[in-house]
Amino acid sequence: MEIKKATFKGSWERADQMPDARVPEFAFIGRSNVGKSSLINMLCNHKGLAKTSAQPGKTQTLNLFDIDNKWWICDLPGYGYAKVSKEKRFKFSKMIEHYLQKRENLVNLFILIDLRIPPQKLDLDFINWCGENGIPFMLVGTKADKLSPTQVALSQEKIEAALSEVWVELPPFQISSSETKQGRKEILNFIQECMGSVN
Ligand SMILES: Nc1nc2c(ncn2[C@@H]2O[C@H](COP(=O)(O)OP(=O)(O)OP(=O)(O)O)[C@@H](O)[C@H]2O)c(=O)[nH]1
Ligand SMILES: [Mg+2]
After folding, report:
1. How far is the CA of 134 from the centre of ligand 1 (A)?
2. Whose atoms come closest to the Cα of 144: which ligand?
3. At residue 4, does pLDDT exceed 80?
């Protein structure tokens, strides 16, 4: 699958204020700075589409993008960014929780994990929460360009070993880099497959 036209639809602070969608939606989540917005831009071949920043906490709202008038992408705020106030952090998690539980057209969530850091409790807790809440997801290991292939494989192994303690069957896992476009084809194909099973 190729994306021809991606356009920004708008930003919302609450899931119940978002436009009703009659098309499949795919969302991207993960810790602040993990590379959600960069991955969306990489998938869409559109550098300035989702705002990115070297400083964590850039995306603070639910941002929607229309893709080829056929499906939507939602860029979610990062979770677990310690520098925002406690109140704001709470707001983030409620905002995210509501979105994930109420968004009827959400087909799949991409949970991004930075391959350079060992498995974090926060990520594992979030993944387990998604499992308990029946939210379909794929794990995406990000920033692979910053590691050697051996380090990438080791990192994936560590994440999967941590998940094996809870999960009988491991969720799908895709390695990616927004710099080299690694994983682009695979993620777009995955999206297409998901849409095939929806239609
Ligand atoms: N080398 C490398 N850098 C990346 C990659 N993806 C993102 N970055 C960098 O990581 C930083 C954060 O990227 P964003 O895409 O803004 O991250 P985010 O997850 O959307 O962050 P928040 O919106 O703050 O939660 C930026 O400086 C990006 O250039 C990647 O695949 N490789
Ligand atoms: Mg962002």
Report:
1. 28
2. 1
3. yes
